[in-house]
Amino acid sequence: MMNKLPKDTQTRMTAALAGGWVADAASLGLHWLYDSNRILEVGGQEPEFLTPSADYFGKGFGFFAHGGKQAGDVSHYGAATKVLTDSLLACRGKLSVRDYQRRFLAYFGPGGDWRGYIDNPTRITLQNLVANEQKAIGAGQASIQTPLTDKQKRILVQKVLPYTRRLSGDQLAKPVREAISLTYQEPEIQEAGVLLAEAIDQQLLPESGADDMQLPAVSKLPPLVACYAGQDDLMAQVEAAVRVTNHNDDAVAWARCAARLLEQLYLGQSLAEAIDKAAAEAPDRKNLDQALSATSLDAINAGNTFGRTCYLHEAMPVIFHIISQASSFTEVIRANIHCGGDSCGRAWIIGPVIAALHGAGTSQGVPLSWLARVTDAASLYDDAEALTSS
Q1: DSSP secondary structure code for residue 48 in this structure
Q2: CA neighbours within 13 Å on the CB side: how many for 70?
Q3: How far is 295 from 284, CA to CA, in rounded Å?
Q4: d(CA 19, CA 370)
Q5: How far apart are CA 318 and CA 307, in angstroms?
Q6: Separation between Cα atoms, residue 72 and residue 89, nearest integer Å
C-alpha cells in the first residue's frame, strides 16, 4: 500500500485517525450550537457524546442538523472522510481522483447510503459531478464519426459509463470493447464505443468542487496525509483531493497549512515544530499568530475573537489556539465543544493532532472508553490500521 513505515510512525498515524473519529462523534450532539452559555447549560463540563436533540437548540443561536442521529454517530464530515478512506484503501494508498469522485457521488447522491445533512460544498459537488458527466457525454457523442442510430448511441453510453466513472486513459479500451461485444459484434461499433469512452474520459474534470472555503476542504485530510506524509508530492495530492469538493484557492491554501501540521506530527516532530512549518503555509498569518500568542486555553474567547462558523479563516485560528494550549485529548475536545459553532469540522484537525501527540489509552491520549463509544468503531479502526500498514 505505502512505503514501509517505522512502527512508531504507524502507531502515531493510527492513533491520529482514531482520534478524528472520536473527536467528531464526541462533538455531534451540540454541533452548530453557537451559544457557549447554552452549551454549558446543556452539557456542563462533560458535553461529549450527547444524542443530538432539537431541545438543545431551543435557546441561543444555532442550527439543528442531526435529527435521527444517535450518541456515537459521526457527522457528515466523518461520512465524507470515510468515502476518501475507502477510495485510498481500494487504490492501495494512492489518490485516484476518478475513484474518489465516483464513490462520493455514489455515497452522497440519490440512492446512496448517506442519511443526514448535506452541506453546501457536498451539494454543489454532487451537482457538478452530474453536470460534468453530461457535458462530457455530449462532447463524446459529437466526436463519433461512425454512423449510428439513436438507439445504438444510447446503448453505447450505457456501456461505457461504468468504466469512465472509475477508469481512465489506457485502462479503458479493453473492458469497454468487451462490454460492447456482449451486444454488438461489429468492430466499427465497438471502436466507436471505445472512442466515446476515451472522449468522455478526456472531458471529465478533476476539479468538481464548489467555490467554497469552508471546513470540508480540510476535514478529510487525515487519511490522505497518512498515505503521503514525507513524500514530495504530498501538497500536489492535497490540492487534487481538496478540489474534488472545494474548488477554491483559499481552501487549498488552508488545506496545505493543515496538511503540513498533520504531516509533521505523523512523522514525530514536536507540536511547536509542526505549528511553525504549518503556519508558513497559511494564506493569512495575522490571526493565526494572534491565536498562537495566548498563554492559556480559552476556546470560548477564541471563538469570540476569530469566529465559530465553518469558514476556514475563522476556524483555523481557533484550531491553532486550542491545540497550542491543551494538555490532553479530553481537555481539547471539551474545549472545542464549549467553543461552539462548527465543532465537528474543527474536530477533524484537533482530534488527530492531539492523538498523534499522546496516542490512545494514555493519561493524556484518547480515552479507551471514548474509543468504544464511536458507532462502528471496530470497522473504522480496522480501516485506520490498514491504511497505515504496509
Answers
A1: T
A2: 4
A3: 21
A4: 10
A5: 8
A6: 24
The answer to whether the beta carbons of residues 212 and 174 sit under 8 Å apart is no
Would you say 119 and 76 are in contact if contact means Cβ atoms under 8 Å apart?
A: yes
Phi (first) and psi of residue 360, to 5 degrees: -125, 145
The pLDDT score that the predictor gives to residue 1 is 43
pLDDT at site 2: 46
Q: How far apart are CA 210 and CA 122, in angstroms?
A: 8
Taking a C-beta distance cutoff of 8 angstroms, is the pair 221, 259 a contact?
yes
Instruction: Kindly give the parts of the chain with pLDDT less than 70.
Output: 1-3, 390
Residues 193 and 172: beta-carbon distance below 8 Å: no
Instruction: Check: CB of residue 273 under 8 Å from CB of residue 353.
Output: no
Q: Quick one: CA dihedral 172, 167, 134, 114, positive or negative? A: positive
pLDDT digits (tens, 9 = 90+) for 145-166: 999 999 999 999 999 999 998 8
Instruction: Report in angstroms the alpha-carbon separations of 207 from 210, 247, 252, 283, 309.
Output: 9, 6, 12, 21, 25
Q: How far is CA 88 from the centre of its chain?
A: 12
CA distance 193 to 179: 10
List the helix and strand counts (H, then E) for the chain.
20, 0
pTM: 0.94
Torsion from C-alpha of 221, 274, 384, 165, nearest 10 degrees: 20
Note the pLDDT of residue 84.
Answer: 98
d(CA 369, CA 42): 22
Q: Using an 8 Å Cβ cutoff, are 29 and 56 in contact?
A: yes
